[in-house]
From TrEMBL:
Enzyme Commission number(s) of this protein: 5.3.2.8
Alphabetical list of InterPro entries matching this protein: OMA_tautomer-like, PrpF-like
Keyword field contains Transport: no
Coiled-coil boundaries: none
Enzyme class, first EC level, given as a word: isomerase
PANTHER family attached to this UniProt entry: ACONITATE ISOMERASE-RELATED, ISOMERASE YBHH-RELATED
Taxonomic superkingdom: Bacteria
Organism: Streptomyces beijiangensis
Protein name: 4-oxalomesaconate tautomerase
Family: Belongs to the PrpF family.
Record flagged with keyword Isomerase: yes
Gene3D superfamilies: Diaminopimelate Epimerase, Chain A, domain 1
A molecular-function term among this protein's GO annotations: isomerase activity
Length: 356
């Protein structure tokens, strides 16, 4: 099933319909999505990291979850499939997909699905309308980066098991640049845009073409990955890097997020959750940049501005020490785009004769 989840788009599969061997599954998904190829012209990928994603869903054996969700990021131009991170946008479609496929029975008016994210072991609960026992994708919820409106999918995240500050510090100095390393569902490095000699309001395409910035961000990411206990992150998409600037449109902060070298045209759900939590930590790099709803407030709505609008995160932080994210919630939308059969390109390609 092809679905839009939040501001991403991906292929949703039942786990039983894919090979169990990860290496065989990787090879199949590369052929399904059309990678490696910058246009993904021979597959169903959309030629961008945000539209080259896969969700693998199955009934969960865990008593605290209804379904298991494995997120796979399929590289566009390289033959890589990564399971090193979650995706909070595709997460918005997991509950509806589980009901559509009969993994979870629908309620008469509304259904809640408890989801275990296999990439990290974290849990989430997605609630969405199911009038008459059928998933409804029509509604009045609007999210930035998606045209029109759709039915709201409310996603709540319980307190994570890991530390909110993986390094144990509100600020680390990496190569002379102050950063805050935070993980509230997505390992994220917060950096003041001004510290990198940019405004933080630039167009994503312009930032991607700034070679000096790209080089500096690469250095920061490698060093921060080691500090956060992620090891060598050269071949992974985490940690994300989020540049912070003062808000321009009534939000708490303006952001530019890198995934890891492409600049996100919006911001990921779990990345935004980490940003919102990081802004509430006393002494973080967000102090003096972010404009939170009230001084000293450690709970409530945080509006994260991004290149195509904003994303609202409900977050509650206990400052500790150590600081802990007690509650995180967000409203997303999802829509079923296509339900059918995908035909991957052949596994063993042979040179075809020219068409007469």
């Amino acid at each position: 099933m092809l679905m839009r989840g939040g501001t991403s788009k991906g292929a949703y599969f039942l786990a039983g319909d894919l090979p169990a061997d990860p290496s065989v599954r990787k090879e199949l998904l590369l052929r399904v999505m059309g990678s490696p190829d910058p246009r993904q012209i021979d597959g169903i990928g959309g030629a961008h990291p945000l539209t080259s994603k896969v969700a693998v869903v199955s009934a969960s054996p865990a008593p605290e979850a209804d379904v298991d969700y494995l997120f796979l990021q399929v590289s566009v131009a390289e033959a890589q499939v990564s399971d090193r991170q979650n995706c909070g946008n595709l997460l918005a479609g997991v509950g509806p997909f589980a009901v559509e496929r009969g993994l979870v029975p629908a309620g008469d008016a509304r259904t809640s699905v408890r989801i275990r994210m296999l990439n990290t072991g974290d849990l989430a609960t997605a609630s969405f309308p199911t009038p008459g026992g059928r998933v409804s994708y029509t509604g009045g919820a609007k999210i930035s980066g998606v045209p029109g409106t759709a039915a709201p999918v409310v996603i709540e995240f319980p307190q994570g098991a890991g530390p909110l500050l993986p390094t144990g510090r509100a600020v680390d100095l990496v190569g002379g640049t102050p950063v805050t390393c935070v993980d509230n569902g997505m390992p994220t490095v917060l950096i003041a845009a001004s510290g990198l000699r940019i405004t933080g309001y630039e167009d994503p395409a312009d930032l991607e073409q700034n070679q000096d910035l790209r080089t500096r961000l690469h250095e920061l990411r490698l060093a921060a990955g080691e500090l956060m206990g992620l090891g060598d992150v050269r071949t992974t998409t985490v940690p994300k890097l989020t540049l912070l600037a003062p808000p321009r449109n009534g939000g708490a902060v303006t952001t530019r997020t890198f995934i890891p070298v492409r600049c996100h045209t919006s911001i990921g759900v779990l990345g935004a959750a980490s940003v919102a939590a990081g802004l509430r930590i006393p002494g973080s790099v967000g102090e003096g940049i972010a404009q939170l709803p009230s001084a000293g407030s450690q709970g409530g709505l945080v509006r994260i501005e991004h290149p195509t609008g904003f994303l609202d995160i409900e977050t509650e932080i206990a400052t500790g020490p150590p600081p802990v994210a007690r509650r995180t919630a967000v409203v997303r939308t999802a829509r079923k785009l296509f339900d059918g059969t995908v035909f991957p390109r052949p596994a063993a390609e042979t040179e075809a004769a020219p068409h007469p």
